[in-house]
Amino acid sequence: MSARNLLLLSSSRVHGHGYLEHARAQLEDLFKACHVKTVLFVPYALRDHDKYTALVRDAIAPWGYAVEGLHTKDDRGQAVRDAQTIFVGGGNTFVLLRTLYQLQLLEPIREQVLQRGVPYVGSSAGTNVATRSIHTTNDMPVAHPPSFEALALVPFNINPHYLETDPNSEHKGETRDERIAEFVAYHSRPVLGLREGTSVRVEGSKATLLGARSAKLFQSDGGSRELQPLADLSFLLSQE
């Protein structure tokens, strides 16, 4: 796993910023370090693949990078093998994972990222599928993938868009924390709650929390704790 080079974003949009603008420095650090000129975008989490790819292109092209949609390629497996970097966008995680299974893209992506060091960027659903499984997504299961098991580029789970319970809320239903705790109780696997504007940068066996906000770690023993910006998350990779 020493070749691993990941940037896992909680989201592509943050209040007060344009699309992907909040993550520009993180993205450009990754692209420049890996000499990336062209981004292969995977748009399968939303229905309109052309429109989605154009959205990403409009955001990234002014920075000096070309964007190609994987859906436009005749041989998608070869396109993944030829990619300088792979960016999997957000949307519905169930739809995304089902499509990756249908197109037989899970193993090609895993091989490129884990064995050849091709950079991987995920946002929201794209971050969910980078983890062990999609059990901790916030999305509704509008599609049925053959398995919840995902790319397993990291050995833990992430909950993008993590939002703690408002103590002044009158809502008495199940909270996000309770749902994540239920998953941990069944699977004994840690879950990292990524708040908006935060991300995880993985370089080989090193992982770091980026962004201006803390993240909440739901531990495999049932406890939880806050992790501050720039926290070393490498211990989460040791479970491999």
UniProtKB/TrEMBL annotation:
<comment type="similarity">
    <text>Belongs to the peptidase S51 family.</text>
</comment>
<dbReference type="GO" id="GO:0008236">
    <property type="term" value="F:serine-type peptidase activity"/>
</dbReference>
<keyword id="KW-0720">Serine protease</keyword>
<comment type="function">
    <text>Hydrolyzes dipeptides containing N-terminal aspartate residues.</text>
</comment>
<protein>
    <recommendedName>
        <fullName>dipeptidase E</fullName>
        <ecNumber>3.4.13.21</ecNumber>
    </recommendedName>
</protein>
<dbReference type="GO" id="GO:0006508">
    <property type="term" value="P:proteolysis"/>
</dbReference>
<dbReference type="GO" id="GO:0005737">
    <property type="term" value="C:cytoplasm"/>
</dbReference>
<dbReference type="GO" id="GO:0016805">
    <property type="term" value="F:dipeptidase activity"/>
</dbReference>
<keyword id="KW-0645">Protease</keyword>
<dbReference type="Pfam" id="PF03575">
    <property type="entry name" value="Peptidase_S51"/>
</dbReference>
<keyword id="KW-0224">Dipeptidase</keyword>
<dbReference type="InterPro" id="IPR029062">
    <property type="entry name" value="Class_I_gatase-like"/>
</dbReference>
<dbReference type="InterPro" id="IPR005320">
    <property type="entry name" value="Peptidase_S51"/>
</dbReference>
<keyword id="KW-0963">Cytoplasm</keyword>
<keyword id="KW-0378">Hydrolase</keyword>
